Amino acid sequence: MGEQSASRMQGDRYQHLFSWYVLLSLLDEESPFASAFVEHPEAGAADDVTLHPHPGATVASRYMQVKWHVDHRALYTLEGLTETVGRGRSLLQKLFASWNTLRGQGPVEVWLVSNWSADPELGGYLQGRDWRLTEDFFVEAPAGRLKAARSRWLEHLGVEWDVLRVFCADLRFRLGLASMVELEERVDERMRMHGLRQGPEPRAIALDGIREWIEAGGEAKRLDRAKLRVFIRDRGLLASKTDTPGVGLWIHGWARRQWREPPAVELDWTPHFDRDTRAVPTEAVWREQLLPELREARRRLASRPAESVIDFRGKVPLSVSLAVGTCFPEVAGDRFQVEQATRGETVLWRSDAKPTQRQLQGTEHESAPDAMDLLVVFQLTGDARPDVERFLASHPRRFRAVLVLEPEGGPHDGAVGSDGDAVAFAVLARERIRQARVRWRTATTHLIPYAPAGCCLFLGQRLNAMGPVVAYERTAAGGYVPFMTVETG
Questions:
Q1: Which CATH architecture has domain 2-234?
Q2: Which sequence spans correspond to the domains of the chain?
Q3: Is 193 exposed, middle or buried (0-12, 13-18, 19+ CB in 10 A)?
Q4: How many whole angstroms separate alpha carbon 425 and alpha carbon 360?
Q5: Which of 3 and 115 is assigned the larger pLDDT?
Q6: Does residue 383 surpass a pLDDT of 70?
Q7: Which of 174, 273, 294, 336 has the most CB within a 10 Å radius?
């Protein structure tokens, strides 16, 4: 039973990958197709993904059935297409029923798409250029095995030759399609061609969208170019534009790295950081040396063109990313592009990305009524609460209240799927922190981040008019210590 479930899951994944591959063709400006369906409600067995032309186009609508096989123990044959299992219908009967229902709507093609190949006999009747049956299949007086196979098809479907001929002319056998890995590569190639992100995470976002459309049903399953573009934008699938005028800011903290384009400003802080021990500079070093260097970088970059984007690169602690953001605030018009590693893929996030509809859930409680400080735990990609509880136990009277912010569904490594998510979380976190400061009448905010560096950068940009914010770093032993204080006005 477990193997059957795994096979079904693989089949669904293969079907949805192929569907996304087909849907992306709608983005072609010269595509003859105006819309598509996933699991078309009227297409019978040929419903997995369909394409429908613009009015006046000379192409037929395409209705496709996608079949996945976990191994290659067999091939498609002329006889095998008529085989039935139990009391069910054969594959040929299912395709014929779909075609017979749909052909009244206009020109149609019914496609069988599968990773299984055709045997030499069936394959000999398939055209390599367009997956049609060759003219030899339609000879008036067939002989040999073709004669036997055609007679079996006629009897099996219960039709005359003139009907079978029209049906077979509309069949397409796209057999021997790519393996799962190869199909993923083809999907990535098509996504790249349309300026989209590639890799496991963007593909997962696309496949989640297909599943959501299918579950919603009705018009949700119908896609056109405009609807597809909205989905791509809202789910953060657009690749960062590399042709935007920009200037580079490199800060080396945990380690030194080199990137392709030379920076306008480069700060080497590696003598003050040690990744193995997680040692960070003292508050005095930060205040007297590093913060002035960061402010000088801000001054040097102030003459950049107004439309430019700061390309920030560096292996630094989360609190440093937060501090960079506070030094280059959003209200001053500063915009960032930042390299972000997520689930094995490195992408470029932008601070001016359109926020998604993701939500933050917050829990807060009073800790010490006489205290004046607020502790904020900003946890998106992991659960910091066990360490925070130990931290609070060692500071029993330090904080008036504790606010924990995390995404709906809880923190996990895939919680932030795009720069749009990161911007949404930063905007919401800023507002929740502001409300908590007013509610608890606190003076200083203490912030423990457990989030992608890009999120911390974008949050820092929005922490204006928050008073002093103390940023914490995690120690090698698992606790948290204050690292720096940034003044946000």
A1: 3-Layer(aba) Sandwich (3.40)
A2: 2-234, 246-350, 360-487
A3: exposed
A4: 6
A5: 115
A6: yes
A7: 336
